[in-house]
Amino acid sequence: MVKRNSLIFLTAFGLLLTGCSKSGLEITKDDILEVARDDANATKSECENVSIKEQKGSYIVSFNTNGGSYEYKIGKDGIIKERSFKRGAKEETTETEKVEEPVKEEKSKTSKKEEEKSSTSFDEGQQQAINSALANSGLVQDDVSNITCSLDSNTNQYTVTFVLNDVTTTAVVDAATFTVISTILG
């Protein structure tokens, strides 16, 4: 009888230890989608064309809403690593064409000194790159000063620089997806 009770006790204790060893946090694809939707401030009914792809150590979540399309890279721990937002493709293309023509005319009329001074006037692509870089740092445009943005046509990347609390930050943003590739402080 004592052996039997001891055996039952040891078995129960072994099962308890087995259960405790698997207590690691396990996040499902539904949880990952909820994190992305919450960050985009979108409801389940607003999201269309939802895609969740598993990659090494993270998930890529993309979906469309009335406001545009979102893409997130979320770690398996549920933390957002990267995010990007695009307005509707038709709207973006149309506005980009309209904005580029006047900018070319202005460049031919203005001198180099005037171009450097008008650093607060950006085309739509530059503004999206700036917004992405600032959002990646948890900031808005009013928080920073001395914002500059330039496009490297060879790499198809924007370089965004800004100053916050006397610290210069430089961010490299992909021109196609407006995803922040790197950020350097100092």
TrEMBL record:
PROSITE patterns named in the record: PROKAR_LIPOPROTEIN
Domain of life: Bacteria
Basic and acidic residues bias (residue ranges): 87-118
Region feature (Disordered): 87-125
Official protein name in the record: PepSY domain-containing protein
